[in-house]
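Hi Prof. W.,

I finally got the RDD family protein prediction working! I wasn't sure whether to trim anything, so I left the full sequence exactly as given:
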Amino acid sequence: MIGKLTLNADKSITVETEDELISYQFASFGARFGARLIDVLIIMIPSYFIPIIPSWLYWSLLQSGKDQSTIGQDRFGIKILSLDGSKISFGQATGRYFGNILNILTFFIGYIMFFFNDKNQCLHDYLSGCIVVKEIERSHKIRITE
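And this is what came out:
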């Protein structure tokens, strides 16, 4: 569209092309700000969640896996259990992960819960129905058959 641009007295613009005469007004600050906000959200929301995927998978897959712990947790001999003592599900591990993000967003208030309950649960443990334990002893049952 090659044409002639004219600034009019009312601060509108007229563009004259070979086939058309088009009038424009300058975009307001509110319209430009609103458009920018929408575009930033379109870019920022996916770019926020994409980096979360590897860390979510790390914690959720390892904590719900056969060892029931991440590499760091394993190093300290701790594991995650359901409230009934069984292995946690991937869904529970996912709940723990996103509950932990909630702890961060509330300025770590969810971690304070640790000191005020008999199971040492933080908010993310409580929300996902989990406990964090350290094994102190394991013994084998002896079965006597007749």
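The chain has a mean pLDDT of 93. Does that look reasonable to you?

Thanks,
D.
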